[in-house]
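Q&A log
Question type: sequence-to-structure
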Amino acid sequence: MSPGNGCMHNLRFSSVILTIVLAALLVVSGSLLLLAYQGSQSALDREIQLTYAQDHRLLNRLIREYQTNIVRVAEEISKRPDIRISTLNRDIMTIQMALQKSIKGHSVEQIDALMIHTKGTHPIFVKNASIYTLDIPLDELVAPSSSNYQWENLIIPHKGKNHHFLRFQFPLINPELGEVIGSLSAFALLNDNFWILTEAQQITGATSVGITHRQEVIGTVNSERDWPDIFINAKKQESIMPFMDGTSQTHELIIGDNDYQLYLHKPGNSLKTLAEAYNQNLWTGIGLVIFISLLVMLLIRYLTNRSLVQLMRYAEQVPEQIIPTPYPNGIFAEFNKVGSEIEVMVKNIRTQENQLDAIFHHAPSLMCIKSTDLRYQMVNPKFLELLGKTEEEVLGQDDFVV
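Response status: OK
Response body:
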């Protein structure tokens, strides 16, 4: 017998059943936990997508309101009588005082600079307190625009940094003659724009906000990580990037007439909670499977051992019985069937033995049976009658003795 066959021969039935049951339970429980995890992950991803879509709508509305408010306030300033009259008279001092007074109002806090341009005079440019200390060349800012009532983006490089300005220009019209006497431009600086960043943070619930243009960061608030570099340096730009401590989003927005990216980091531990719950449930499931498997093993071992022991004892005892006793049925039909078959087999053997014994002992011919070493095992009466000896004198002897 080969070692492999010997190993298979020594396996216990209950151990094999336990292994099969344990493997099946582990596969089933693991599959159920995996399906539950995937379902939760899909629901979480769907919720993240819905949140992203809602934040995108809010941010677009924020930018529209921001630009609309600048246009509304700038238009009101352009229609002020003192502005128009002083512009018509080219009274530079009065124009500058009027602009200074206009830009200090609460409703003008989103406008960082105002400029009036008239023919024959230098542009009159006033700054709001938000950029008062900003030292940048004004040549590109003060150059008049060729179109009115349209947004224009101005990017002014200075000291290794690009300054992004929004500009909206209104014509100044003589109320009496209806002629254009100049233009008024309103400017808004996007770099570290407090209003956009803080409003975006409040309406979306983000902990950190950043704004970029062509992979250049131009403003952040509460930035505690190296994002939006995470998005900028990524080979494949993704709108949503989940982290264990929340979700980071990137939103493509049109500000003025140019494309910008606004990044949000939304707090949350949904992924961490989901992973912890899955790991906890996984180990709980494994422990429960092992416990159930042990109970199943004990039950199978008890039931099978009881039936197997009964069958084995019957198989050992029944050959010694002249008339086989019926097999005492147990709780399993399969074992009862095997016991009944053993009973029938033994009865058939007994019948055949009786028939052969009758033929052997009553045959008129000489009959004997020898072993492999040529010693007599069985002899019939005719054979003993011929030798004139008893059965005890012949059995076990060879021809030389007999």
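Response note: Residues 1-9 have pLDDT under 50 and may be disordered.
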